[in-house]
Amino acid sequence: MDPEHEVSAWVFGCTDTGLVRKNNEDAYVIADLTSESAIASSIPAIADAPFLDRTQRGEVAMLRKMTVGEHGLLLAVSDGMGGAEAGEFASYLVVESIREGLAGQRDSPTGSLVREAVERANNVVFETAGSHPRQTGMGATLTSVLVRDDRAYIACVGDSRCFIIRSGKVSLVTRDQSLVESLVELGHLTREQAESSPHRNVILQALGTQPEVAFALTRWKLYRGDMVLLCSDGLSGKVTSDELLELALAGPTIEIAGRRMVALANERGGEDNITLILTHFGGPGLEVAPEGRGVTGTLEKIHGFNHAAGSGYEDNRDLSTKKLEPATPVTRKLDDDTVDGESS
User: Does residue 117 belong to any structural domain of this protein?
Assistant: First the structure.
């Protein structure tokens, strides 16, 4: 790549089991899709993945400077569910399937490639769950960012989140595909009520629980100095967006900032697994953000999840009809002591 057009990124990834759960059902992957090298946090013993850095599941952290090559840079976080063994395997399958589906791909439009990769991941988890009794009913969330040149594509299924930090401000650019988010959409809950609802962890879909999935896809223009935070709800459920912003800006490095985020989530109970990828973008290939240019003005929604119906793409929503009641959730976050969908 021409050095004058190089886009670089400092990337810190971390996953922590937390203070309560015995197993870590989260996973992340950070992949240079041009060289097909990757760093992954979760590698089941049965997996044959020699290109991945083999690390200890549950307490994995890495810091690396990367260049965005011709095929792009992939960042992805997944939160598994379905019981300890199944949840771990589901989140691994999701991040690995996404990486594999995008590696070396360049010819098709980027949005189409992302869509194919997400649908592929859903099929892999769904078919694996159907053929292995111990993984029956497993699923996993996904929030991923694919960076190509100065454009980034965010794909989201479930309630893992993506934040963008620019010019000292933070923006949440994903919407949880959750029961309470649908109730907010329908006007039955306020945003404040949703944040404290006992049902806030009930999600409406996850990869692998149904033969088809509807995911939200958004594109935005990157500027030099942008920071991107992907995280599971083990972090976002314990630390507010303003606190995440304060920690990210305080630094002094993204590694220290990321570790302080995890520590704060644990200080507040650490009941869930905590996973994040914190990235700082730079390089001459990115423009400096014009003064006052916020995140919202650079976001372009390609398609979104239909929160009012609780399923499907919002493109199918008929705005002339009366408000729809949310669909029955197809899955829910399971505790470690939950087996086959029923509490023991």
Answer: yes
Q: Which residues contact 237 (CB under 8 A, 6 or more apart)?
A: 200, 201, 272
CA distance 323 to 234: 32
Number of structural domains (the chain) is 1
The CATH number linked to 219 is 3.60.40.10
User: What backbone torsions phi and psi does residue 11 show, to the nearest 5 degrees?
Assistant: -125, 130
**142 CB neighbour count, 10 Å cutoff:** 29
3-state SS assignment for residue 218: strand
Count of CB atoms within 10 A of residue 266's CB?
A: 18
Whether the upstream peptide bond of residue 133 has omega within 30° of 0, thus cis, is no
pLDDT, tens digit (0-9, with 9 covering 90-100), for 176-231:
999 999 999 999 999 888 888 888 889 999 999 999 999 999 999 999 999 999 99
Which domain covers residue 216, as residue numbers?
A: 3-178+205-307
Partners of 157 in beta bridges: 142
